[in-house]
Design brief:
By secondary structure, the chain is of the alpha+beta class. It folds into 2 domains: 377 residues, no CATH class; 116 residues, Immunoglobulins (Immunoglobulin-like), CATH 2.60.40. Helix content is 38%, strand content 18%. It has 15 helices and 16 strands. Strands 8, 9, 10, 12 and 14 form a 5-stranded antiparallel β-sheet that branches. α1 crosses α4. The chain starts with 53 loop residues before the first helix and ends with a helix. The structure holds iron/sulfur cluster (2 copies). One iron/sulfur cluster (SF4) binds next to α11 and α12.
């Protein structure tokens, strides 16, 4: 997939009075690293001018729906459980009525791989539609924080040196801080139960210092991101943005400037004289009137007329901006539009491509395996872990003792009693402090146990045994385990 960096070594085709560096000089592409850097390396603050149009309206509707979903998801309940609660402290993940534990490794792995493949597929098909339409960074920045900024500081000005009064700036920061605090609670509701969060909100911070610290740190992080870091997150920190060029192909849907129709650009369409570098004098002017509306509206500060760039988040604001210009000058809309590299080169758009077919096939297979595994998952899980400390002990009666830890998970809504016994090695016994082990509803516990086995059972320092776990509803789970002991000769000596 062809893409051009922001800097191509050409003079930037913008009027100097419309885009000035912080040092008051017009920027050039010579040596440009990022669209948000001035030539002296200082930051160029982006204050995009909003451009009304069908894409902005559609994105605004999508954004408000997503914000509502984001706020309500942790509060909604299904089967008496939160719709989504990623309780890391309790190591329980409630998602859409199902509860997952760290022992559900296969399900979690399938979910992770499926998620990545879905992102790959979506990007190959629809380009950066996630970034421009649904990413929380874009949604909150463009439809919450920027409108508030415009409310207090006014519409973006061509001259960035125009001062904003301290009262307006302070008022904006206060509103930002209140919003960040609210968002921090909304965000944390995904990780701590609503009841616990309420106790954090209404209780004294002295009673829950860790919870208080988490809220404060999250609030500061949100404030830093939306108040200061902003588009830098997309440009320099987001790994998805960095990887998109390997996920796209020439038929992926992306946003393009129609170079053939727009060039040579110039202020007056009737004139045959355009920019000296780009337009020979005997070529009729293109539709681009070089108004720079597509640039001043861009939230990442790029000029889409330089081609597809890594910084383009696919927000379509430049389409709305240019369509309005085309309307005004009586030219057809779509000088900037959703298209593909193939489309811009005059080739036929192909929906069916190997990656667009293969990704969904693999995703569907994974989804099938996930569903079958989920449906056939029992209410209990047993994991055997080797005990801490020395691997084995030779007991005074000559038997070999191994310490094991039995991790028991109960997914039922009521408590369950489990019992353990050893099988597979003659005369092996299992002792636990508590042979009837109770596991509360929806919890996991670790029970310590000792296995005593005759030394004669060990060959080359190992003996294979099974730990059998029985429980309610006729549950019987058998887990293999390798006991360790002395090498055969030592064991035989010990056994004599
Ligand atoms: S908004 Fe359209 S006409 Fe104006 S500079 Fe951009 S591409 Fe050219
Ligand atoms: S170039 Fe257009 S689509 Fe890309 S980020 Fe800028 S305004 Fe959005």
């Amino acid at each position: 997939m062809e893409s051009t960096p922001s800097g191509a070594g050409e003079p930037l085709a913008l009027p100097a009075h419309k885009r000035l560096d912080n040092d008051g000089r017009p920027p050039t592409l010579q040596g440009t690293v990022l669209s948000t850097l001035n030539s002296d390396g200082s930051r160029r603050w982006i204050k995009p001018r909003p451009s009304t149009g069908c894409f902005l309206t559609a994105r605004r509707i999508v954004a408000y729906i997503l914000i509502a979903i984001f706020a309500l998801m942790p509060l909604a309940r299904l089967n008496g459980r939160p719709l989504i609660l990623l309780d890391i402290a309790a190591r329980e993940f409630h998602i859409l009525g199902a509860t997952f534990y760290p022992t559900d490794t296969l399900l979690l792995a399938l979910f992770a791989v499926g998620t990545f493949l879905t992102i790959f597929w979506m990007t190959a098909f629809l380009g950066r539609v996630w970034c421009g339409w649904a990413c929380p960074q874009t949604v909150y920045m463009e439809f919450v924080f920027r409108p508030i900024e415009r409310l207090f500081e006014g519409a973006p000005r061509a001259n960035s040196a125009s001062p904003v009064g301290p009262i307006a700036r302070t008022a904006k920061l206060i509103v930002y801080a209140a919003l960040a605090l609210l968002m921090a609670h909304m965000f944390l509701a995904y990780f701590v139960s609503w009841d616990l969060l309420k106790s954090w909100i209404f209780g004294s911070p002295i009673k829950h210092p860790i919870g208080f610290a988490v809220v404060v740190i999250t609030t500061i992080a949100i404030l830093f991101d939306f108040g200061y870091f902003r588009e830098q997150l997309c440009l320099v920190a987001c790994p998805y943005g960095r990887m998109q060029s390997v996920m796209l192909d020439k038929h992926s849907l992306t946003i393009w400037y129609d170079h053939r129709r727009g060039e040579p650009r110039g202020k007056k369409r009737a004139s045959t004289v355009s920019l000296p570098v780009l337009a020979p004098t005997n070529v009729p002017p293109g539709d681009c009137i070089d108004c720079t509306m597509c640039v001043t509206t861009c939230p990442t500060g790029i000029d889409i007329r330089n081609g597809l760039q890594m910084e383009c988040i696919g927000c379509a604001q430049c389409i709305d901006a240019c369509d309005r210009v085309m309307e005004k000058i009586g030219r057809p809309k779509g000088l900037i539009r959703y298209s593909s590299q193939a489309g811009m080169q005059g080739e036929k758009f192909r929906i069916m491509r190997p990656r667009v077919v293969l990704y969904p096939a693999v995703i569907l297979t994974l989804a099938l395996i996930f569903t079958l595994t989920l449906l056939n998952r029992g209410f209990a899980d047993v994991t055997l872990l080797r005990g801490l400390g020395q691997p084995f002990t030779v007991m005074p009666d000559g038997q070999i003792r191994n310490n094991i830890r039995v991790k028991l998970t109960n997914r039922r809504d009521t408590a369950a009693i489990f019992r353990l016994h050893a099988d597979g090695v003659e005369h092996a016994t299992l002792t636990t402090e508590n042979r009837a082990i109770e596991v509360p509803a929806g919890e996991t516990i670790i029970a310590n146990a000792e296995v005593h086995a005759p030394a004669a059972a060990f060959h080359h320092g190992q003996a294979r045994i099974s730990i059998v776990v029985s429980g309610p509803e006729d549950l019987v789970l058998r887990r293999p385990f390798v006991l360790v002991g002395p090498q055969t000769n030592q064991a035989q000596e010990s056994g004599r």
